[in-house]
Amino acid sequence: MQNDATVERVASATPRLAMILIGYIPILHVIACIAIWFIPQSIAIRATAFVIVLYVLPPLAARIPHIEPGSYSMHLGWWWSQQWQTLFNRLPFLEELLRLVPSLYSMWLRLWGSHIGKLVYWGPRVAILDRGLIDVGDSVVFGASVRISSHLFANGELLIAPVKIGASTIVGGFSLLAPGVVIGENESTPAALVFPPHSVWSGGRRVARRSKNVV
């Protein structure tokens, strides 16, 4: 019995320890970016390495675990992915720099694993908190300061579900899109609108919410 209790304690402590260790990824990411500039190489090589470590390494590393939509007490794969995104969440100007170059930001989101269509316009200060969990059609326009989160903590559970936006849609500025939101094609949503989890916008209005099991 005592051995069984010990095994149970170790089993319950393992996920917590993993979360703590994974939580060091952001600071290690920063250290790696800084350390590159002390490598005894030419400026061109150091600059290239800096861009790769800053912008390319995180999306590739974040895609290692498979994140299945659903409700969880905690999801270590999601936690791993979030830590690789922390630097961009804390320093949003890093993403604004990418948006200065047409299509570059969309290409970067595809690297995270999202589906992003052609000719998508990202307004200033758009924030995407789960960069690998959105599906955006062609010719979508995001107004300023739109917030998209494909995860939400509620009632002690972590809800994970991709956000889907149809082609040729305009998402009004300062809107908040929660996990599982679906906006149809050729829509134009009002500004400063809050979309609850699994809600659907179609025909110019919010329609019945989907089941949380439908993704």
What features would you describe in this structure?
There is one protein chain. The relative contact order is 0.10. The chain has helices at residues 2-22, 25-35, 43-62, 76-90, 93-99, 104-112, and strands at 70-72, 115-116, 121-122, 127-128, 134-136, 141-142, 147-148, 151-154, 157-160, 163-165, 170-171, 176-177, 182-183, 194-195, 200-202, 205-207. It is globular. It is 39% helix and 19% strand. It has one domain: UDP N-Acetylglucosamine Acyltransferase, domain 1, CATH 2.160.10. The longest helix has 21 residues, at 2-22. The protein starts with a helix and ends in an 8-residue tail after the last strand. The chain has 215 residues and is an alpha/beta fold.
Sum up the structure in keywords:
single chain; 215 residues; alpha/beta; UDP N-Acetylglucosamine Acyltransferase, domain 1; six-stranded mixed beta sheet; four-stranded parallel beta sheet; 6 helices; 19% strand; disordered N terminus
